[in-house]
Amino acid sequence: MSDLRRNWQRVVLVVIPLLAPLSGFGQEVVLLGRTSISATATDLSGETDPQENGTPQNRLGGHGSAIAWTGVGNRYVMLPDRGPDDGANSYRCRIQIVEIVVDPSAQQPVKTQLVATKLLTSASGKNFVGRATQFDREHPEQSLRFDPEGIRVTKQGTFLISEEYGPSVREFDPEGKWIRDLATPARYQIKNLGATPADELPPHNTSGRQNNRGWEGVALSDDGKLMYLITQSPLLQDGGLDEHNARIGTNVRLRELNLTNGSSREFLYPLEDKSLGCSEVEWISTHRLLVIERDGHPGEMAKVKRLYEIDLAGATDIQAIEQLPSRGIPSGVRPVTKKPFLDLLALEYGLAGPKFPEKIEGIALGPLLKSGLRVLVVTSDNDFKRDESTEIYLFAVK
Fold first, then answer.
1. Taking residues 126-130, what's their average pLDDT?
2. Taking Cα atoms as reference points, which of 326, 357, 351, 301 lies closest to residue 249?
3. Torsions phi, psi of 255, nearest 5?
4. What percentage of the chain carries pLDDT values higher than 70?
């Protein structure tokens, strides 16, 4: 057996008839199968030198943090986050190019293959890294620290990547070289950068994103004109934390940016509970998006691992509102409308249990199946843990 095949374990579920509606949410969402990627697999970077904790640079992990269909065949791009141990290591940020083939009629309906690994570098060729200390206070735009969390592929084949340290959105060429940064409104940025979470929370900062809770997801319209960004949690000035820096807020901002003319809007996305967060956003059609909302618990403790369909039609543009309340909808504001789309813990899917992952973080709509239904890929982020595989779930949706 080749090293590549050892690295990519294939676990198959029984195929369910394609026209059987499931989930109890009024949607036809059908589980096709699943694949588990070994926690000790290696990528194709060829970089075997160790990080500070001894983990080799070519460890294939964290890549379920985000996934995007390239628009070509069965090819996807998966995005690892900042590496192991929450920013304590100089992990060289990268993307993983994979083939995910779905054939519901086959005995093994889901097959995966790692195709390429691309390191993310600056214009001068320096590696972006996950280590939290790699920032420049005087020139933040020159910082090399990077915590990628969302990715989409443009019609030109470039990558738009949202990340949390800034937060920022950066565009990279097909080989992983930086092209440009897209403008980030000041309301999302913190003024005082720090090497630890405590250094970036109140009282050091009173506005901007919460630590490790920046732009967690990015979506791109089919025509490439509109980009959507969502924070994992409410901003500091929007009542995200109490006086003890405990999370209490439920009002998250969803940002829309017109990449053609630079115009923008913001919408209020209300979390179902203060303990939850948004992990990804994906484009469906005009003014309709999918959002992952989840808790922070694995296994039997997991209670909320859901995809919601949201509609922006009629929602209020809240850009002029400098400060939102921690909870409750401000007078005169209409939030996005939400309806459940997919509950990953629903009994009929058989996914829930002691090994269900904590971090469901990636979603991508893929190609059409022969049935006319479309592939929906959902992925987990294993945080490079040595005993936790990366999970890839394949669904068919209308």
1. 98
2. 326
3. -105, 135
4. 93
Place of tokens 């592939």: 375
Instruction: Tell me how crowded residue 245 is: count the other CB atoms within 10 A of its CB.
Output: 16
Rounded-to-integer distance, Cα 326 and Cα 323, Å? 9
How many CA atoms lie less than 13 Å away from 253 in the CB half-sphere?
Answer: 31
In tens, the pLDDT along 283-308 reads 999 999 999 999 999 999 999 999 99
pLDDT band at 27 (very low <50, low <70, confident <90, very high): low
CA distances in angstroms from 214 to 149, 155, 396, listed in the order given = 9, 26, 30
Running DSSP on this structure, what letter comes out for residue 200?
A: H
| pLDDT-derived band at 394, boundaries 50, 70, 90 | very high
Q: Are 307 and 272 in contact (CB under 8 A)?
A: no
| Domain ranges (residues) in the chain | 21-27+43-94+120-345
What is d(CA 108, CA 11) in angstroms, rounded to the nearest whole number? 9
Residue 9 pairs with which residues in a beta bridge? none
CA of 20: how far to CAs of 16, 66, 106, in Å?
A: 7, 28, 18
CA distance 350 to 303: 14
- Residue 47: other Cβ atoms inside 10 A: 16
Cis peptide before 330 (omega within 30 of 0): no
**What is the pLDDT at residue 264?**
97
- What is the reported pTM? 0.92
